[in-house]
Design brief:
This protein is mainly alpha-helical. It has 3 helices and no strands.
Amino acid sequence: MIKPIKKLSDAEIQQLNSGVSSTLKKIIELEKTENIKSAGRPKKENKKIPIGLKLSPWLNEWMNRQPESKANLIEKALIEYYQIPKHLNPDNNPET
């Protein structure tokens, strides 16, 4: 059997409406803050990212003795070995 719906008083209706409106206000405020651009320098899209890499000890020691950074040595070696085209490197892109 279906139970009859309780008739709400005006005070209960107003309380429900205020609860909904406050929730909506919070959602609107969150949307506004998400659309606001942050101050300062814009983030670089092609930023290099740190990664963890396990190397043999002898290779790590050799890289430590080189004047270039490990990242530059690895990047140059991979580009040369796998013949990666320059147009795939966003740092070489003349449009930016």
